[in-house]
Design goal:
Structural class: alpha/beta
Distance between the termini: 13 Å
Radius of gyration: 22 Å
Strand content: 5-15%
Order of helices and strands: EHEHEHEHEEEHEHEHEHEHEHHH
Shape: globular
Oligomer: single chain
Helix content: 25-40%
Largest sheet: 6 strands, parallel
Number of strands: 12
Strand order of the largest sheet: 2-1-3-4-5-6
Length: about 350
């Protein structure tokens, strides 16, 4: 098979946009596929594409192509953001399609279709970026057998592509066996993720600030916290702490938590976003509290792995108080997370892709 990604794929990535390609690449290898990687910046991809072409000329066959998009348009992913090799990626896809090789691609997000896309960018830069995003979609319509999305709810925001050729491929779980939860008199909450305009948690902060016996740890990137800290005054009680961890350093935080949080302000994007952190919580067998009106809340409710709540400080506080006062409520949700985790591993996602695309041959 061929694995395509228009950026380097690295093991120590800390952002979801880098973690996912690495995990999917390793999952395909674990399934036993011989993987030809067409990844990196355009110079590296051009070399790899030439090797693929040479193999095709020798009469070798590929089972399928799986591609991971990134948050930038395909042609603008080099460091200088100039489209110096405009025919590289989609030209390769076209040649593979001509050889009868099925192609599937995971389309990461569709922020660019929303009015508040990249407010810090100059208007002309947003216009150029949107032009190249549209070019990507037109090429996808022409070349892909399957367009994978974080959720099928995102499909209504994706123009020009046949919904019958779309499928959901949410993030995966890294299964592990966490140690038994250490009980204490404090309900320990954990949030891992961003603090930007799409991750507004003011009501959660207000709820915890006024609630005894509850401690919230927020793990986010230093730059994001610095940009947002004026909006989130920390209580003198010390009930909210901010930390900056990633990778393996997250494991002790997850193991120490009683409850993981996705209490963000509902936003049109959250109606179809499938955050990686939700699946990290499941893999760590920790119950989740999610805001109603989000796709995460639907998943939590359907799978029985936690609670959903209105995004309002008083409603959040009442829920946390009831869990704090009845800690046995956590156990059934922990067991539910343990039960569903094997269905949502990265290996399961790779198996789904392989089954989908080999049916197209």
């Amino acid at each position: 098979m061929i694995f395509h990604h228009p950026l380097p794929v690295v093991e120590d990535a800390t952002a979801a946009s880098g973690i996912r390609p690495w995990q999917m690449l390793q999952a395909f290898r674990s399934l036993g596929f011989e993987v030809d990687s067409v990844c990196g910046h355009s110079r590296e991809r051009a070399r790899a594409a030439a090797e693929v072409d040479a193999r095709l000329r020798r009469g070798e066959r590929y089972s399928f192509v799986y591609a991971e998009s990134c948050t930038e348009p395909t042609l603008l992913t080099d460091r200088h953001h100039l489209p110096l090799r405009p025919w590289l990626d989609f030209g390769l896809f076209a040649r593979l399609k001509a050889h009868g090789v099925p192609i599937g691609l995971f389309y990461r997000d569709i922020y660019w279709r929303f009015p508040n896309y990249a407010p810090a960018l100059a208007a002309w830069k947003r216009g150029v970026a949107r032009l190249f995003y549209r070019y990507d979609l037109l090429q996808y319509r022409r070349l892909l057998d399957r367009l994978y999305l974080p959720s099928l709810e995102m499909a209504r925001h994706v123009p020009w592509f046949d919904p019958a050729r779309m499928a959901a491929l949410p993030p995966g779980v890294i299964e592990r066996s966490p140690p038994p939860r250490a009980r204490s008199g404090t309900l320990k909450l954990l949030y891992v993720g961003g603090m930007g305009p799409h991750y507004r948690m003011h009501e959660l902060f207000r709820a915890v600030a006024g609630l005894e016996g509850v401690m919230l740890t927020v793990c986010t990137r230093p730059a994001e916290w610095e940009a947002a800290r004026s909006e989130y005054p920390l209580p003198d009680s010390g009930r909210i702490r901010i930390v900056h961890k990633s990778g393996a350093d997250l494991v002790p935080l997850l193991d120490d938590a009683d409850l993981c949080m996705l209490c963000v302000e509902p936003h049109p994007y959250w109606a179809f976003a499938a955050p990686l952190k939700l699946y990290e919580y499941v893999g760590s067998q920790r119950p989740v509290v999610a805001s109603r009106g989000t796709l995460a809340a639907q998943f939590v409710e359907q799978q029985g792995i936690g609670w959903t709540v209105d995004y309002a400080a008083d409603a959040i506080a009442r829920l946390l108080q009831s869990i704090r006062d009845s800690p046995a409520l956590l156990e059934a949700r922990i067991e539910a997370a343990r039960r569903i985790a094997p269905q949502h591993t990265w290996l399961a996602r790779a198996r789904q892709v392989a089954a989908d695309l080999t049916r197209h041959q």
